[in-house]
What we know:
It is a single chain. With about 180 residues, this protein is of the alpha/beta class. It has a single domain (about 5-70, about 75-175), classed as 3-Layer(aba) Sandwich (Rossmann fold), CATH 3.40.50.2020. It is built from three helices and nine strands; from the N terminus they run βαβαβββαββββ. It has helices spanning about 10-30, 45-55, 105-115; strands at about 5-10, 35-40, 60-70, 80-85, 95-100, 120-130, 145, 155, 170-175. A six-stranded mixed β-sheet has the order 4-3-2-5-6-7, sandwiched between helices. Strands 1-9-8 form a three-stranded antiparallel β-sheet, with helices on one face. Strand 2, helix 2 (about 45-55) and strand 3 (about 60-70) form a beta-alpha-beta unit. The longest helix has 18 residues, at about 10-30. The chain starts with 5 loop residues before the first strand and ends with a strand.
Amino acid sequence: MSKEHLEELISAEKIRERVIELGAEISRDLAGLDELTVVCVLKGGFIFTADLVRHLAIPCRIEFIRASSYGTHRASSGKVMLDHHHDPHVEGKNVLLVEDILDTGLTLSRILDELRGHNPASMHVCTLLDKPSARTTPVKADYTGFTIPDVYVVGYGLDAAGKLRELPYVATLNA
């Protein structure tokens, strides 16, 4: 997979600015909480989560959950697999679930069902990217970085078969 097949969709600067805005918005909306348990959806959400928590004014605990529905393909398999070795501890906690992309809604819906089964005090969802035209399951994020068209994207944590996560921007992959 080469970078000549990439077309920048969202610049690193725009991402940086929006992450700062999201941190301020979440901090304002959830002000008064003693602590926020931030649950990062691995692998794609790790860069976004790391940048976002640096801009939250609420003390955080960070947990991880691993979910996959793509494998090495560009389309969701329709089956969401959760890695239960990464079960976050959310019972009685105020939770902010951080996801890289909300597209079909299958993964987010499955994760929310799982986390709600552990009785959090509150649950909020923040996604870097929202692709509403791809939605097949009715689910919505409380906080969204950018709404994008139904294109395959990589960079800033998102990958194509495990590659291109390191890009500081989000790009479409035309290959």
